[in-house]
Amino acid sequence: MKRMINRHVQPVAPGQGFSVIGKLNFIGLLLLVGLLSASSVPASVSHGPVVVQATGSVDSELLPIPVEVSKPRTNEECIKCHKEPNLTSGRLDGSVANLHIVYDLFKETLHGQKLECIDCHEDAAAARHCRSGFQKVNCLACHSKLKGLFPLGARERLAKKKIRVPKRKIVGDSYYLESAHGKALLKGKPDTPNCYHCHTRHYIFGKKSVKSSVNRANLTQTCATCHKERKLDTLLEKVSTFRLEAHRKGDLSFDYDRGNCIDCHQGEAVHGVKVNETPCARCHNTKAKVGEAKLFGFGPFHLYPDHEKQFSTWCLRNFYGVLLILLVVGVGCGLFLYIMRRSAEYYRKEGGE
Questions:
Q1: Integer angstrom CA distances of residue 195 from 44, 226, 259, 269
Q2: What is the Cα–Cα distance from 141 to 134, expressed in whole angstroms?
Q3: Domain boundaries in the chain?
Q4: Could you say which DSSP state residue 258 is in?
Q5: How do the pLDDT tens digits run along the chain, 353 residues long?
Q6: DSSP label at 45?
Q7: What's the CA gap between 353 and 342, in Å, rounded?
Q8: Which H helix or E strand runs over 121?
Q9: Whole-prediction pTM value?
Q10: CA–CA distance from 22 to each of 10, 12, 15, 198, 218 (Å)?
Q11: Which of 8, 33, 53, 117 has the smallest number of Cβ neighbours within 10 A?
Q12: DSSP structure class, residue 167
C-alpha cells in the first residue's frame, strides 16, 4: 500500500510550492479586506445610491444630495443675502451681475406689493443657488399671451393669488410686431433694449409716480441711457429747442414738452401702442397732404437733426439757437448800459452838476 501511495504522490518542487501558497494567502487577504469594509458601512447608508437621513446629513464623507426646501423661499429669506450692497456674481459670458436689491424701495413697487421673488425667479427656490446664474426672466411671460416663456408657471401662480394683469398691460403682440425695440429684439440684433432697460428690473412703479423710470420727468434720462446722441447737453442745444414749446400758441390741446420723447415716438417705442393723437406728424411728415398739395417744405423733424441727413433742419436749429443767445446777450447789455447811465445821472445831481 505504501508503495502505491508513493507511486501516485509526486514530490513538489520548492519554487512551485511557494507559488501556490502565495496565491492562497492573496485570496485570503482580499476576503479579509472585504469583510472589514462591509462591517464599516453605517446603518443609514445602503449599497447603491446615498440615502439622506432625516436630519439632512450623511454619516460618510460623500456630499448629501440637494433637496428642495420644505416651504417656498420668501422675500425676507432672499433679502438676507441680496441686501448686501456689494453682492455680485460672474456670468458665463464674463460680465458681472449686480445682485443688490434695495428692499424697502422694492416693497413699494407694483410687483413688490403682491409678488414673491420666486414668482419670477422660480429656479431660485432650490436649496442651493447656481453659481453660473439662473435663467433670464422674460416679462412677457405675464404681460402677453405668448406661451413657452420663462418663468413657465407665472400665470398659474398669478391665478392662485387672484392677481389679474390689466388688459392694457398685455403688450406682447404689439411689442414684437409694432415697436422698433421689439422688432429689433425679435431679429436678434445686438445692443437691443429689453423690457428692463426702460422699466428697470426690480423698481417698477406706475408711470404717474415720480419714482418711475418712465415718468414724464424721467423719460429724457431713461431714453438717453441708449440714445446718448439725443440728449440735450450744451447750452446751444437747450436754448435752440424753445420753439417746440412755442407750438402751444397755435394748439393748446397738446403739451409740447421737449423732455417727453414718448409724445412723438409713442408708436415705435411704447410697445407699439399709440397713447394719444400727437399732432406732430400733421406737418412734419413728407407724406402729409393738405388737400392735394404735399407739404414738401417741412419734412421729418427732430430736436437733434443730423447735419448730413437733414442739413437744412440742422442749420435752422442752430440759427434759432444763435439768434436766441444774441437776443439774451443784447437785452442783458442794454439793461446794463441803462443802469450805468441812470447811475451816472444820479451822481451828477448829487454832485451839483
A1: 51, 13, 21, 11
A2: 16
A3: 71-168, 171-278, 297-348
A4: T
A5: 444 444 444 444 444 444 556 656 666 666 665 555 544 444 433 333 333 333 444 344 444 544 544 566 889 989 998 999 999 887 777 888 899 999 999 999 999 999 999 899 988 877 777 766 788 899 999 999 888 889 988 899 899 999 999 988 998 888 888 888 989 988 888 888 889 999 999 999 998 999 999 998 898 889 988 888 777 777 766 666 767 777 777 777 777 877 788 887 887 788 888 777 777 766 776 555 555 555 444 555 666 666 776 677 678 777 877 888 899 999 999 999 999 999 888 888 876 55
A6: -
A7: 15
A8: none
A9: 0.62
A10: 20, 15, 11, 80, 88
A11: 8
A12: G
Cell output for 328? 439774451
* Closest listed residue to residue 172, CA positions, set 266, 262, 271: 271
E strands of the chain, at which residues?
Answer: 88-90, 96-98, 289-290, 293-294
Q: Can you tell me which residue has the cell 446603518? A: 43
Grid coordinates representing 15? Answer: 519554487
Measure CA of the first residue to CA of the last residue in the chain; give whole Å.
171
